[in-house]
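Internal ticket - ligand job 195, FE2/S2 (inorganic) cluster:
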Amino acid sequence: MSASSLKCDGSAAGHGACMVNRRQFLLYSGAGAAAASTMTITLFPGTAEAATQKARVVGYPRKRIARLSELKDHHPLDFTYPDNFANAQCLLVKTGGVEAGGGIGPHGDVVAFSYLCTHQGGPLQGTYQATGDQRTLGPCPFHLSLYDLRRHGIIVSGQAYESLPQVLLELDGDDVYAVGMMGLIFGRDKNLMES
Ligand code: FES
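stdout (structure tokens):
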């Protein structure tokens, strides 16, 4: 796929188009990017705001976080990613057969996200909700932001203005691996503290 053809429409099917590679993450770094580790991407292709940028490619750790066969519908599993530093708390959840963008497994219903609200870092533990076809995290206990887990953590309502960072997953046999992160973790100026 060429960089200029990247298209992310928020759908489950479109999730792959958001990813150059599940084990890579693009940090928009402009003129400061080093030539040996950069690639050129087009932001907002096909729009008046289309712009070419250098992006730095950073590798994430591949961390086994669960066995698919042991996950129960609507029972979030807590883990840390991409490290054990501050604000690394995440949840993995099986949404009960409701396909979600970036979801893995036979039904595409296993997804993972940061637990930190993107507004001011409110803790989202214990706020997973399954109502009809809706799968959400929130409302945040601080200012009530609510995130849609079926659509890459976009904001449903509230004070936040950034989607909830989504942990990219891979399935290898019965093992679920975290392999990357889409979106900046609250409270960090970069996701990988040691990069
Ligand atoms: S910290 Fe979550 S809505 Fe403000």
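Auto-summary: Residues 63-182 form a domain with the Rieske Iron-sulfur Protein fold (CATH 2.102.10.10). The chain is about 0% helix and 35% strand.
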